[in-house]
Amino acid sequence: MASGEGGRGGCGAAAGGRTVGADDRRGRGRRAVAAAGPGAPRRGRRPGTGPAEVGRAAAAYGLATAVSALALGRVVDPLPRVRVLQAAAAVLAAGVLACAAAPHWGVLAAGQVVAGLAAGVTLPVTYALAGETAPAGAEARVLGRVLLGWSVAMVAAVPLSAALTDLAGWRTAFAVLAGVAAAQVGLLRRLPRVGAPRPASPARYRDALTRPGVRPLLVVVLAYMAAFYGTYAYLGDHVRAVQGVGAGAAGLVSLAYGAGFGAAGLLDGRLDRAGPARLLPPTVLVLAGVYLALPAAAGALPVLLAACALWGLVNHAGLGLLVTLLGRAGGEARGPVLALYSATTYLAAALGTAALGPGYEAGGLTAVTRVAGAGLLLAVGPAARVRRGEARRPTGRRPAGG
Question: What is the pTM of this model?
């Protein structure tokens, strides 16, 4: 992914907000550093940058991504997918390059807004193109390959960008990321320029929300993403506190999660054969159990790494199921439906991280995972509703455009 669900922008950050400039001596500073994720260095001094500025710049990226997904999702839906992706990659490169040259955190935040606008377009268009070019009945397998970008970013790109920041400074890390985004413009030419026929006039979001299964699926997405971002944001700080390890050892958490997430790609074909709607409720239920078990697992690093690998595996499976089902439910409104998915994702990320921060400071990781697990348990109901709706659909039929 160019800039997606595995990364968020931030002041004094490189490649997704994993290296932040904040003083962690106070509670709010600790929260800002913790929210950078398991692989973030514990401290990173940046001139004129404090916890408030870190939060504002990170919020600028997330807000811009959500707004872009909604505001531009319908506009770009009738356009050729590959050309839209190329344009978004160019805009992303420009935004990140502006971050690299920023003389002030406000300019950096503006660059994050530009990058967020590009990401908000990139994600739904990427998923839509993958679903449209996938063979019938193989959507989960094809989307699983796309989702590997998440694990690659988490396992490789984020730690490398953090290391590059330490060695050459955060501006260099941003400049390298801008170069990667610019290179995508050429690489995207290799993508197929075919896809399902789409109406010249894009479907309205109101119409997209009335399609069977879309609303309950988005409810599941909201709980799913709030649980992930809200837990992942503070897990690294908890590991450092409990285990007494540095950022490098805590980064093994990201490595274990990413390894599990990537390994789950081997199961995507089986998900297609078993039926995504049928598997969604038990997957959400199992994931709730994983969250509730994380605090106990954190007491021993090897056990925690195994739990995080399982977390990544189940999360990959569930995410693939959700995107596949949303694409099928969207039919000719696939683009707007997936734009709603991206907007919901970033709304959940913002809500999960912000809302669970006070809970983490008051009750630690246990409080965070209890809320995350409870939200997912509530989401089992909408997931079961999707399964019942799929069961009532005539055998052998799929929505138009799916």
Answer: 0.75
